[in-house]
Queue: 2 jobs
Job 1
Amino acid sequence: MTQATMRATPAALRKERTPGSIIYIVHRVAILLACAAIFYPGFNPGRITTAINRNVSLFTASISYQSLVNDLARPLARGWVQSSTFVLLMAASIVLVVGIVLCAVGGCMSVGNNRMQRRGLLFPLVGSLVMAGGLVGIYMAYLQIVAAANNRVPANFAPGFWLYAVLAAVTLATTLALLAMDRKRAETLEPKMAMHERYKIFLFFLPILALAFVFSYLPLWGWRYAFFDYKAGGELTMENFVGFKWFTYLFESEATRADIFRVIKNTLGLSAIGIATSWLPMAFAIFLTQVPSKRFRRFVQTFTTVPNFLGWVIIYAVALAIFSTDGFINNFLNNILGIAADTNYLMDSSHMWLKMWLWGTWKGLGWSAIIYISSITGIDPVLYEAAEVDGAGRFQKMWNVTVPQLLPTFFVMLLMSIANILSNGMEQYLVFSNAVNAQSLEVLDLYVYNLGIVNGQIPISTMVGMCKSVISVALLFIANTASKKLRGESIV
Amino acid sequence: MAKKKSGGMKYRATPGGVAFNVITVAVFTIFTIICIFPFYYLFINTISDNALVGADMITLLPKGIHFNNYLALRGVQDFGNSVLITVSRTILATALMVLCSAFAGYLTTKRQMWRRSFWYRALVITMYFNAGTIPWYLNMLGLGLTDNYLGYIIPAIVAPYNIILVKTYVESIPASLEESATIDGAGTLQAFAKIILPLSKPILATIAIFGAVGNWNALQDSLILMSNSPGLYTMQHRLWIYLNASSNLAATMQGGGAVAADMLNNKVIKYTISMVTVIPIMLVYPFMQRYFEEGIMLGAVKG
């Protein structure tokens, strides 16, 4: 395909904004919604009784009978409901999913050429009828639950049922409309089915986008929990909507206010130490490259970078091995120097920030230096020669040639660490926390974890996390703007 | 000029210069020793006579060398299980991530893609914000990926940063190579499999190695997602539990008939399990160092 035709086609495609193309958009949106809703438990049409776990999505129901009846062991054992009802429910769920998949195939083919579009219409035609069949099956299972009339297994007409009924109806209607209109353009059919590259590539890319959407964008929807008085397993309704109550609660309640200030102090304190010493990797690199022996440099580089690739749990294991009561320090004092010692250094709560910084440096210094070492390798030797001609000594060359060459990299690193000032990560502080030092180790990330996951206080921990995310994005934006102003280059 | 580019330049041996070199080398040597000694110390305690280890007698050199502790670990059921979980997720999640990054990176170089820059930006933006731990957890709960092995795998497939790295790399491959395949009648998929995939091996090795290390060290997702399924705990999670066990770990294990009597010692068990999680990285690292270093330099190139 030549450059010219490639450019021409999009324009040609844009021209044909016929009633047909608008119906196609409705058609595709309906199919897309049906596909997305499969994975979301809130839209499961098959939650025919509230005894079915609220976290079972249509997808789960169609692949795992075990998850479907997980919470129903007692009702089934006692015969309050028949297992055949749930077998029917699962079969109907599978049929519904198959119908949606057929529609999806048709939806993909609808971006092909005329022949492919026409052939593609058969899929949603069959698919939407299959969907209807699945919905009928689910409704029959629902009627069986209603007939069982046991108040321990209350019947529930899931709102998702209506969603799928509407989507199936829309798909069917649009398909029929498109089929009816299709007759008019029989003469425009191409000899073979084909699809333009631009859509083909997009369709290949679509699953990746879908995954990114589900795992990165969909969680944002969870921010709504911050505005409700939600207890695990409860519902979000207008009754328990509390607006910004949790936000003000953070600062009004005596206990949480003390906590939040302590946590922010820890977070900023630890980040500040990190930022204040962020020149260390650069110094490490500059001095290391001054060592004449290449083999020695290689040796240092290899062994100082290893700790970076070990998890924090291992680092904690190392800490135990060296600093605990039966660790190396005490052994060394006892066995080699003959001084009686049995201090557990990890049970000491003084200078915790400094100690955490030391562990972080021990783990990361060698690795952080690599980027500077590579930059030094890339510095033009002519610069050093020129400096030599000007009579610069060793230190003058380091200070006046190497350092200025590394500053742009350093600057980017510094801005990134400022943008990440609230994100210290939680693993390091989690593993090093104990009864004595927990107070000075709890950073924001760890606080959110403790509050939400450990204590189950979903709304308030969501609120804290939400504020953190918003501030972090703002900081990144500021850092990026600063970088653009100062260096004319953005960092993200 | 044939002068060495990378530091280490020749200087006249002035007394000051020599002193500077000596001090620099000394400081770096000390730091390097601090970096590796702890692992040496852990190791000699796992291969020394367990009675001596229990009496805190092993300080600088191993005594009574044996490797029974490592063999005895085979009997520790839940650790073995967590190794299985970690090894399998490392292989599976890394392989899928690499494949997806390669394909996505290649596709995003295609200018013909419908609304390419929009979708690409939508993908890249996800690197710079996240909804927070709790909404992420609630989302995983909603998707049924908690207490579920797939919770380790599926969310790891799309890694925007790695996609950018591959995209940058693929853009540096001469377009003529792919064109020649297209002229021979290869479609997008064939061109990807036959031309792009083999040519981007170096970058794929780099992202694979970073992905594998991340999976190997994974603690947080096990902690948050799998709280009700001890059978799905990762190795690091299990190790953390052992390290924190204040009760007599050895006695608990022996109760289950897991550990030989001569290993009845908390310290030995903790150190041996720690070494088991460290050794693979230590063994692999020297061979993969090049890829690690290339990785960080690629990261410095803006996507």
Job 2
Amino acid sequence: MRSDKLQDAIGMVDEELIVAADKKPNILFKFRWVAVVAAMLVIAIGIGVVTLPDVPMTGEVDNTTATTTRGTTSGTVQTTTQSTTQTTTQSTTIKVELPTALSSHAISEAVYPTMAKYPQVDGYNYDSEKYELWQADRKKQSAYKNAVGNLDEFYKKTIPEFLIDNKNENRVYSPLNMYMALSMLAEINNNKGRDKLLDFLQVDSIQSLRTQAHGIWNANYCDDGAVTSILGSSLWLRDGVSYNKEVINNLTKYYYASSYSGKMGSTEYNNMLKNWLNKQTGGLLQDQVEDTELSEETIMALLTTVYFTAKWDKVFYDDRITQKLFHTPSGDEFCEFMHETNNTGRIYWGEKFSSTTKGLKEGGEVVFILPDENVSVNELLKDEETLSFISSKDTWDNQKGITVNLSVPKFDIQSNYDIIKGMKNLGLADCLGMVSSASHSSRVVADKEGVVATSFIPIYFPLSAPPLKDKIDFVLDRPFIFVINSSVGMPLFVGVVNNP
Amino acid sequence: MDDARIVELYWQRDEAAITETQTKYGHYCYCIAYNILKNNEDAKECENNTYLDAWNSMPPNKPAILSSFLGMITRRISLDKFRKSMSKKRGGGEAELSLDELEWCVPSDKSIDDEMDSENLAKLISSFLKDLPKTECNVFLRRYWHFDSIKDISKRYGYTQSKVKMMLKRTREKLANYLEKEGVFI
């Protein structure tokens, strides 16, 4: 080829340049966190489904719950009323920081609870007063879990539907993001569609759904400096279209959703939407966000996001990273493995899988599920026992405390897929109305430098037998499933790693 | 063992030089070969041939930086092997992709002057790379020297894949302009 000579010459450039390129770069902020996750779900609705009908866009938005103090988490609403001549803000004490342009298009803005910051704990040296404040806020948020019913069936139906993929690609799905999106869809849907959604979400009334969604949001909310876990939502309306103020209020009050109004298809409005998405997803999904635009025909769009960052409770040490082969479905690939030896852990098993966990600092955990050698990830995702394990790990019978030598590949995976087909498969076609597009995008980064070489010892537990040894090598060097549980034990993300 | 001691073993014709090289740089060489060939056996063969080539070239050579010296050997051997296999069939791999990308650096109606030998061309490219911002230079070399995939580069530097692609595209355009000005093409 004409560039052969160029390729050869590049191979002979000054050695000092090669040495510089061999050096490990300074790691960016996001990679200092061990688990950084973001997902966004965008549902665009075309002309014909004006499901927020009847009330002209004149503003009188209910603001009865629009007050908040530090740590107060119930029903906070930031509302802005618009008219053709002026914009006034009925302010609460705390407001989500948004670009000025965005705020000027707000009909109603959500105000997130504030939490006491996690105090630096250095051995026995810490500020006990600050620590207690922090713990109190954590407990307050966690208590919302009591308002959440059993979501096992929801997980069992949706996880296989959105994760099974015959292309052998990496895939990530956020059950809670989906739950919030469907709940909000129920709020803005007509009666028939709403009933179908309520049925699917296993609640008997819209009020029960509100209580449930409010509980899910708060139980999984954390922004204390140690863990960031935020379920964001917003509704994007078309200028001049009538909307129902009560619906807008309910979305803000129960779902912490902000609502905006602007000219669909305009560069300004699209840029505002992109800014909002980038802000809510920590800039992790810039590629997908760049491709997200509302066309002139869109009458409204519903956006939900999840952003989660946490550190491993025990880091992988810097000198314990090795290159190792990962057996992808399309062949072997080298990747960096993080190793941890002699960890006091726990092993779980089923007929077709084995599993262990790694804790996250100050709450949450990552559950690694490795299919047995003769079992594919897709097969596991269809397996009733595995799906039960995902939703009820803590009460799982087949578990044992054991010393675990864990080897996990560093991974940075992204997935982006249409969810309309999946929603139809789940029997929700009636609820889609004139939904013109709906997609789910996500990215998971699991990282931490470190490692020691360990040998690969495959684990296979035949038919519910417990492991016989006291120590086990758990090596995730072939496609596996991971679950990121929030501090209250709910699965924020479930994913398949086919190629780290 | 430090590099100077390993080089000394080569000069003393002590076969322990090979073992020490393998221990310290075996994986480094293997990765370069694997990036180019995408085949375990072929990559292992090129890694072993690197030791043989190093054995035959020290003495007379006394490299100051052993890693890049070995890497250059592996790269050359692996590219030779790759080109031989590519003449039979095109079959993917980062080397082929990178070749396709580098084609953009050579204007469609021109080719590299036959009078320009690889050594002089390498000097020009070195000079060009030294004037680039550090990260752009490193990303360029990770792609076209080490044959890292776009995905691996994006992971290494914490960039999105589209950012890496854009950065490489701009650097290639700059390189094409630079080589044009230097009269490399005819």
